[in-house]
Design brief:
Blueprint (H helix, E strand, L loop, with lengths): L4 H15 L8 H6 L2 H4 L3 H8 L2 H10 L36 E5 L11 H13 L3 E4 L23 H16 L8 E5 L5 H10 L10 H10 L2 E4 L5 E3 L2 E3 L17 H9 L3 E3 L5 E7 L5 E7 L22 E9 L6 E8 H7 L1
Helix pairs in contact: 1-5, 6-7, 6-11
Amino acid sequence: MTHDPVRILDGIRAAAALLGVRVRDLSIKQWKSVPHDVRVCSHDAVYRAFGSWDDAKSAADTGRLPPPPNVPRDMADTNPGRKRDTTPAPPPVHTTGERLLVIPDAHAHPDHDNERFSDLARLIRQVQPETILCCGDWWDMASLCSHSSTWDTEGARVQADLDAGWDAMHELADGWRDYSPRRVFTAGNHEDPRLASLVSSSPHLDGFVFGVRDLHEGLAAFGWEVAPYKETVEVCGYACAHYLPSGVMGRAVGGVNQGRSLQTHGHVSTIVGHSHIRNEYMSTDYLGDRVQSINAGFYGHEDMVEGWNRNTHQMWWRGVALVTLQSVARGRGYGDIEWISASEIRRRF
């Protein structure tokens, strides 16, 4: 994602030319409707570079770049012939209005239907969030579970597990057939490590069996930006991963209030999956900066009860989170959360 102001302005002009409208008349909705390779960036990048869509349009229309972030606007020599305005600048407006849809662990499984993904696609078509974050564990991959005995996995097949996840992805992709949101996928422990175990246990099959690289390439074909397992990626000001570590040993942050624990360890806004619980925690420092942590819950099938979760599934929350963003500053992302349960999605659609 580019943050180069010149390239961003070129993208705005190119979008206006493609749509046959003047730059000054180009709306944010029209700009988002053109292909990403034309507009070259997301609204997040425009906000970082210019502060607002109107300022970006004005710069694209006049050809004058705004002052660098560390130069006060009334001192910038962007138009030497104009009398300088000494009126104090208004306080910054953080509200972006963009929406971020967070899809938690879905655990697509061949023994359970994928109707919930068709429901979710209809929600996406209705809401049209600018960014979609999938927290990983989209596939359950029960056939490769190292915690299960051979008896428990009798009859399970890798191909059936993979097919269940790809079928679910095809259902979900129907949600963005009419527009192009940013899509970020943070791979989970049910995906990369389990597929990697195929090759680690049988190195001679490397390149022959379906592996991690094949999974990531398949996701990219659906338009996902893929963050490999245990890698952290910034999305709309949040540090995002399937889970985040509690320390140098790399164990997942847990505790009674995971949101608060995430802030204690990481000191930035975060979004994670993994635990399948619903939790949100926000703190504000003495300067008014807000930090928000979100545990997104679970979007698996309601009947998914197996040996490994028999005494914990009652604690899970099934649904998605829709965040209307108030700030996308790096490490300081926060917004208003609408928790939409899986049962409510089914009721609506």
